[in-house]
Amino acid sequence: EVQLVESGGGLIQPGGSLRLSCAASGFTVSSNYMSWVRQAPGKGLEWVSVIYSGGSTYYADSVKGRFTISRDNSKNTLYLQMNSLRAEDTAVYYCARVVDLNWFDPWGQGTLVTVSS
Amino acid sequence: SYVLTQPPSVSVAPGQTARITCGGNNIGSKSVHWYQQKPGQAPVLVVYDDSDRPSGIPERFSGSNSGNTATLTISRVEAGDEADYYCQVWDSSSDHCVVFGGGTKLTVL
Fold first, then answer.
1. Residue B91: pLDDT band with limits 50, 70, 90
2. How many Å apart are CA B5 and CA B100, to the nearest integer?
């Protein structure tokens, strides 16, 4: 079964750092495009970042320079390093596999990040 | 950057047909994908590449895309279809690679 499980969310003060993890099973992370999507409380979906199978990475303007997407092939896990966190980064963060450089399937269950003092 | 526009809400009676639109400049030239999200749950893909259905998604869900509007159609609506629905495209022509619509809340009366 293809599955994604996120972890690493929590309460963090503004300016702090946090690393999210997304453990995959049923497929190989390094052979796929993988992405992070977030959803602020009561709001819609916002794309955050993508890593291609070849290693290229892209970011939304709102997180560029602060967030870094990466993967550990030996652990079949995707990461999102988040630095200089702001209140507006508060959201549920989902990881998802990108299919055919087009759509997202499946999605993980999400992990909540709360940035507050 | 590319913008996708959805109506905030759509209401329909059980057994009727719901149509949720997604507007974008020449969206007919792009592949549009649709997700269903129920409260407290992760999004689920219900239509990809304008009109294809993943395995396990009922035939009641269908999609179309032409001109400046893509449409998700849900036939014979059931109470369990009540959810938020999001359209999405991959805009590889810009740095903002992925664009989501603002979402539509489907209410089953």
1. confident
2. 9
